[in-house]
């Protein structure tokens, strides 16, 4: 495999063209693609297609590959686990690695409060289950999300997502009891104190749209992603936590 990006054929090359034609025939159109080439192998930050072209991967499995493709330690861990067993469903037959990973996540998570963890296959599943947990724990239905947010593409998380194209177009109606306020953008809001501006919007929301004591959860990204990779002011989450505590959210 090449150690640097190398283009040896037109993109897509002949082998990729043939496979993409089969994709068109057999794979549902709901799954679009960005790279018009079919990957054969990958290593580190490089992808090599079936025609021998090697690309620099700037996606990383949409943020899943923190140590790159096929890291030797990851490959070894997967191989070792596959030799033991591949799947039981933890809710049917639990196993130690699940417990150890949750333990490690809880110890790494900041803050003095006791913590528990649960593992899912994707971010959208995590959001869906967080909503269920919040609603069951509080007995409330309301959810507050932020303008520009992305939380996933299953129905509850898509309802929380704040982007029509390409995510929400033609998929409504969406789930009820979702409310929205602006995200504190230090660069584009034009406000001397973006956090205070957001708190004013919460006051207005609780006055005109939903009772504060009917809100189960506020769903928020630490850094706004799809909305422009916006880092909030340093005081934002402290103020948001205080607001949530005042209203039992």
From TrEMBL:
Q: Which UniProt keywords apply?
A: Aminotransferase, Pyridoxal phosphate, Transferase
Q: Which organism is it from?
A: Candidatus Segetimicrobium genomatis
- Please name one Pfam family that this protein belongs to: Aminotran_3
The UniProt family comment states:
Belongs to the class-III pyridoxal-phosphate-dependent aminotransferase family.
Example GO biological process: gamma-aminobutyric acid catabolic process
In Swiss-Prot or TrEMBL terms, this protein is called Aminotransferase class III-fold pyridoxal phosphate-dependent enzyme
Example GO molecular function: transaminase activity
Q: Which cofactor does it need?
A: pyridoxal 5'-phosphate
Can you quote a single GO CC term? cytosol
């Amino acid at each position: 495999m090449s150690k640097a990006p190398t283009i040896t054929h037109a993109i897509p090359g002949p082998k990729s063209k043939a496979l993409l034609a089969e994709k068109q025939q057999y794979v549902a159109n709901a799954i679009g693609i960005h790279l018009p080439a079919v990957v054969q192998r990958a290593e580190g930050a490089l992808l090599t297609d079936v025609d021998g072209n090697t690309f620099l991967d700037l996606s990383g499995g949409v943020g899943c590959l923190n140590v790159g493709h096929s890291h030797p330690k990851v490959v070894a861990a997967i191989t070792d686990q596959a030799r033991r067993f591949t799947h039981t469903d933890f809710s049917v037959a639990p196993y130690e690695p699940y417990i150890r990973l949750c333990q490690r996540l809880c110890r790494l998570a900041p803050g003095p409060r006791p913590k528990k963890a649960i593992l899912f296959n994707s971010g959208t599943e995590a959001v869906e289950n967080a909503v269920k947990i919040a609603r069951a724990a509080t007995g409330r239905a309301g959810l507050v999300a932020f303008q520009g947010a992305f939380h996933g593409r299953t129905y509850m998380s898509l309802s929380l997502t704040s982007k029509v194209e390409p995510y929400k177009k033609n998929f409504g109606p969406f789930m009820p009891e979702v409310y929205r306020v602006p995200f504190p953008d230090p660069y584009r809001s034009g406000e001397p104190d973006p956090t205070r501006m957001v708190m004013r919007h919460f006051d207005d929301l609780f006055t005109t749209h939903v009772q504060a004591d009917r809100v189960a959860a506020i769903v928020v990204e630490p850094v706004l992603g799809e909305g422009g990779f916006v880092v909030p002011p340093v005081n934002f989450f402290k103020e948001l936590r205080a607001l949530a505590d005042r209203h039992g959210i």
